[in-house]
Write a structure and sequence with these properties.
The protein is mostly helical. 52% of the residues lie in helices and 4% in strands. The protein has one domain: Up-down Bundle (Four Helix Bundle (Hemerythrin (Met), subunit A)). Helix 1 runs parallel beside helix 4.
Length: 188
Amino acid sequence: MDGAQQLDEIIPLLEAVVDRIRPDQLDAPTPCATFTVASILEHIVGGATAFAPAFRGEAPPAAGDASEDALQVQFRRAMADLVSAVHAPGAQDRTISAPFGEVPGAVFARFVAFDGIVHGWDLATATGQAYAPRDELVAEVDAFVRQVLAPEMRDGDTFADEKAAPPDATPIERLAAFSGRDIPTAPR
C-alpha cells in the first residue's frame, strides 16, 4: 500500500477522533511532548495546508488570514484538500520540500501517513477515545519509518528519542513509543 492509500485509511480514523473532541478538551495535554489537543490539530491543519499545494506542484499558500472556523471544521477542510492533492496527477513523483529536506512525493506521503496515524493516537489518548487502526496498516507504517527515520531527525522537535513500550503494548502503541511517546500503563 502506498502513502496515498495509507492516508485514505488513516484520515477517516483521524476524523472520527477529531469529531468527538469536546471544546473543553482542546487545552488538554497529549503524549506528544509540549503539544495540547488544540496544538496538534493546528499542526495537522497547518501541515496539510502547506503540503497539499506541494503535492499538486503549486506554490505554497500565502501567510496571512487565519480561519475563524472551529478547528474541527478547518481540519476536515484541510484533510479533504490533502487527500485530493496526494492523488493529483504526478503527486507521487514530485519533489517535496519537507521540514527535513527534499524527498519524492511518494516518500513524503508515507511520512504524512506516519505523522497522521501517530497524532491520531495522541488525540485519542488525550481525550479518552478508542483508536484502533488496523494492525496491518500500523505494521506498514512502522516498517517504513524504521527504515527511513535518520538519527539526526530525532532532534526533540521533529521526532523525539524512542521510548520503551510495555510488553503488552498494541502495535499502535509500539509505533507511538518508537516516535518518542511515553505509553500509559493504566488498564486499557
